[in-house]
Design brief:
heterodimer, A: 305 residues, mainly alpha, B: 300 residues, ABC transporter involved in vitamin B12 uptake, BtuC, two-stranded antiparallel ribbon, 2 strands
Chain lengths: 305, 300
């Protein structure tokens, strides 16, 4: 039970990281990303391929490379659609995550196909007891989450973040104000994608095993749900939302298992349905989330004589 | 190498035309909904699957022939598409003019997963096939190459062509069809002329998702169906719509042909499992060089 809770805490941390990444893209800059799981997969695969399958880089180097590669992938996707309406970005990101999954399933020599990659190293795995490894990794993820959170907070309150929010609210006005909107959009998307890929790499090193079927669109829904429930635009909301989503997901596991007469596939279907339905309900009834983003307000000068 | 190429080419082009003709239906549905409602309705994935399963129930459980089953494959997703838009997506589009359409797009992804799981709950993950008479493939000797065509493929393509012809007649000659085009073209002018945009929007969801459902069943007739049938086709459908010009109905037809043939021709150099990735590459190429698509956004 303790191990289980620790594992769930690790997952909450990883989802928290990805929700922070999405917050830079969607919350701060207003760009849609329906292919988050694709960037997560790019990160997980990059690090796994470099640390176990095709090279024996140290873990930190693999994770660093994963962050860079997924950031570049993000920049590429954003660049292609930067001039176009958000609808195109929605289609391209959704397509991107599918293509990543297709490549991972079919480049068998490169990625081992649907069998996935196993024996991905974790820090001190094998040298300490599994329970200790879990706790150690939880500490690592918590540290990573704290660092990324502080960086995102810094970003949010910096002039740079102000430009991003201006783009979100009206990119034409921002362009008229002389800001290179394309560059800001591309960079923001790349930063968000890099954070998502970083979390993906950490996921691979924790799980020790990755396979294409682990990177399904439902994961994108988890992350969007985490950010929306927490509060789009708010970094605190992203982290808290992620913890709530993991708790909800695990809660449904126990609740649905209690319903008598359901086959395994039906149990899975009910859980996926509940999560998708929850996102729709939150978007509809709590679109600002639990921690609504608050803007610094300036008092309106008194003009009455 | 060249002789081999010439031998393969006619077969691949014929296959591509058949696939393109069938894919044109869901692509038209997606693009028509986009033209009127102005957001990408990603529930096309689950509605294609729903059409395939509705047709399956009619065909296998109730023993109906293919054509009446296709009618069922139109009606069920059409009603579901209308209800989903009315009660789930429309309220979200209304929340704000700037982020509303994007919130609706996000919700549509969630909704498609929800609907897919409803189907999975009822039918399970097993592959299912239709009850069809078995025909022998027709073979043609072209002199330099052999061509193999399945009668079922030809029938599917023919059905698709008839449905498209009916749709174009509807849009070109009926009052309601003209209203739909007017709203797609310029909603403000249309409303000045007294056209009720709400009705037109409902009609777009109804017809659009119906076409998607028919397309889903036609895709399944050739092989078998499972809860991911629609999801696997969806990238190609987006590609067809974007390549032709998002929001343009003739564009969707042209795009479907281009992507269908392109996917088949890719078999000359790529493994078959990469077929759907070709659609994505087509999207990237078109967005880079001609973002409005071949026929231009909203050509119709």
């Amino acid at each position: 039970m303790e191990n289980y809770l620790v594992a769930m805490a690790v997952f909450a941390g990883l989802y928290g990281l990805m929700a922070l990444g999405l917050n830079v893209i969607w919350g701060m800059t207003g760009m849609i990303n329906l292919g988050l799981v694709g960037f997560m997969a790019v990160g997980a695969y990059t690090s796994a391929l470099l640390t176990v399958r095709h090279a024996t880089w140290p873990i930190w180097a693999g994770v660093l490379a994963a962050t860079l590669v997924s950031g570049l992938a993000g920049a590429f996707v954003a660049r292609i659609t930067a001039r176009l309406k958000g609808d195109y970005l929605a289609i391209v990101t959704l397509g991107f995550s599918e293509v990543v999954r297709i490549i991972a399933s079919n480049e068998i020599r490169f990625t081992n196909g649907t069998d996935g990659i196993s024996a991905i190293p974790g820090p001190f795995r094998g040298h300490v007891a599994p329970a200790t490894f879990n706790l150690l990794y939880l500490g690592l993820v918590a540290l990573a989450l704290l660092v990324v959170f502080l960086l995102c907070q810094r970003l949010r309150h910096s002039p740079y973040g102000r430009v991003l929010r201006a783009i979100r609210d009206d990119d034409q006005v921002t362009a008229v104000a002389g800001k290179p909107v394309m560059r800001f959009k591309t960079e923001a998307f790349a930063i968000g994608a890099a954070i998502t890929g970083f979390a993906g790499a950490l996921y691979g090193h924790y799980n020790a095993y990755i396979a294409p079927e682990g990177f399904v669109p439902l994961i994108t829904i988890y992350i969007v749900l985490a950010l929306t429930a927490g509060g789009t635009g708010s970094n605190v909301g992203a982290v808290v939302g992620a913890a709530l989503v993991v708790a909800f997901m695990e809660g449904t596991r126990f609740v649905v298992a209690e319903i008598p007469g359901l086959a395994a596939v039906q149990v899975a279907a009910v859980r996926e349905f509940m999560i998708a339905a929850l996102l729709i309900l939150v978007l509809r009834y709590r679109p600002k989330g639990l921690f609504p983003e608050h803007h610094p307000r300036h008092p309106i000068p008194d003009t009455t004589p | 190498m060249l002789a081999h190429l010439i031998e393969e080419l006619p077969q691949l082009i014929v296959n591509g035309l058949v696939v393109g003709t069938i894919l044109a239906l869901p692509a038209i549905g997606f693009t028509a909904i986009y033209a009127v409602l102005r957001f990408p309705n990603f529930t096309v994935a689950s509605h294609a699957t729903m059409g395939a399963y509705a047709g399956f129930v009619a065909n296998v459980w109730f023993g109906l022939p293919v054509l009446p089953s296709l009618a069922v494959a139109f009606i069920v997703p059409a009603i579901s598409g209308l209800v989903c838009d009315e009660y789930v997506l429309k309220p979200l589009r209304r929340t704000s003019a700037a982020t509303g359409p994007m919130a609706a797009a996000i919700a549509a992804v969630a909704l498609t997963i929800a609907l897919e799981n409803v189907i999975r709950f009822v039918f399970g993950n097993d592959l299912r096939g239709y009850d069809l008479p078995v025909y022998r493939d027709w073979r043609f000797d072209l002199g330099f190459a052999f061509l193999r065509v399945g009668p079922q493929q030809v029938e599917n393509a023919a059905i698709s062509v008839v449905v498209m012809a009916a749709l174009f007649t509807f849009l070109a000659f009926t009052r309601t069809g003209k209203m739909m085009r007017a709203v797609a073209d310029n909603p403000m002018l249309a409303s000045i002329k007294g056209i009720n945009a709400e009705t037109v929007a409902r009609l777009a969801s109804l017809i659009g998702m119906g076409l998607v459902g028919v397309g889903g069943m036609l895709l399944g007739l050739d092989t078998s169906i499972d809860p991911l049938t629609g999801f696997r086709a969806v990238l190609t459908v987006f590609a067809a719509a974007v390549v032709g010009g998002l929001g343009s109905i003739p564009g969707a037809v042209v795009g479907a042909m281009v992507v269908g043939i392109g996917e088949e021709l890719s078999l000359l150099v790529l493994d078959a499992s990469y077929r759907t990735a070709v659609g994505f590459v087509a999207i990237l190429v078109v967005l880079t060089f001609r973002p409005r698509g071949i026929l231009g956004e909203r050509a119709y």
